[in-house]
Amino acid sequence: METLTIPPTQSSPAIVADGERGVIEMRGDSYPENSYAFFEPLVAWFQAYLAETDLPLRLELHLLYLNTSSVKIMMDLLDALEDAHQTGREVAVKWFYDAENERIAELANEFKEDCSFPFDILAVEADARP
Amino acid sequence: MDHTDVYLLRETYNQKGILLCFNGPFSQALIEEIGNALRNYMESEAASSSSTRDVFAAYIEIAQNIRQYAALKGYNEAEASATVVIGREGERYVIAAGNVVEPDDGLALIERVNRLASLDKGQLRAQYKERLRTPRDPDATTAGLGLIDIARKASAPLSCSLRPVNAGQRMFFSLRVVL
Q1: How far apart are CA B119 and CA B160, in angstroms?
Q2: What angle do CA B87, B90, B92 make, to 5 degrees?
Q3: Please, what's the largest Cα pairwise distance for chain B?
Q4: Is A71–B36 a contact, with Cβ atoms under 8 angstroms apart?
Q5: Which of B35, B47, B129 is CA-nearest to residue B84?
């Protein structure tokens, strides 16, 4: 599948969805004016990847702040990963966070509660802000 | 407005511990710029990382809610005008925000905020999780999670008020959040 690349803005994350590596990377803040419109291309790529391939998929997240509509979209993606996991698909999340950003670690932990696939929450010392 | 008024405004801001005040119609660009200013201001005041993040998050939810409400109602610039004040009270930060709403919406909001104010942190968490699991309305641009999220971050119950404006045709809704 073709790689999807969305450049970052002040209020939306950089996204790279790489089908060859089976990795979706997101980096930055997420509070776009219309989160559903912003994430629509990623959601479409994600659904097509899960439906059209049986390859592993890993989310690598370096997110700093998510507004509630971005949280909702992230929850929907994680639910779909959970469903894929239940059918034997190899899926995983690695959530990297700046060690002093407790709030994003709390959010990541709340997401993790509902996931039974490998979900690592990893503190990094350097400020991840681009 | 003359020079004396500006001085009086400044004195009022200083007395009340107001860090930042905005009065006018929001755009996404303004929301972002004010958010930046807020983050920088709080960092320069050596606020803790968690309180800076909580105040920023509550401000973004409030500002985006107000903007989306005005867009949904097709309000003009004057009607879409909002007032947002961010200040300090001792160790706490306070966000007070107000905007014009339709009377029915205002009453529904008052009820919703009061209901949230009566819940403890555990109940708010349960509500948040439940709402997160509710399939979204395809026409909606918000997740309906904003107020619950603000209530979860707040260090005191939310409070709000409603007063008639435009000869009672509309209401001015104001929300106060202590973080």
Answers
A1: 15
A2: 60
A3: 54
A4: no
A5: B35
Contacts of A69 in chain B (CB under 8 A): 141-143, 145
Res A109 pLDDT > 50: yes
Interchain contact A36–B (C-beta under 8 A): yes
H or E segment and range at residue A88: none
If you average pLDDT over every residue of chain B, what do you get? Answer: 92
The answer to whether B132 contacts A72, with C-beta atoms less than 8 Å apart, is yes
Which contiguous run of DSSP H or E holds residue A122?
A: strand A119-124
B93-149, pLDDT tens digit by residue? 999 999 999 999 999 999 999 999 999 999 999 999 999 988 776 666 565 799 999
Do A64 and A89 contact (CB within 8 A), yes or no? no
The predicted-structure confidence for B145-177, as pLDDT tens digits, reads as follows 999 999 999 999 999 999 999 888 999 999 999
Chain A residue at shortest CA distance from B137 = A36
Go through chain A and tell me how many residues it has: 130
Note the pTM of the prediction, 2 decimals.
0.93
Cβ-Cβ contacts under 8 Å, A67 against chain B: 57, 60-61, 64, 146
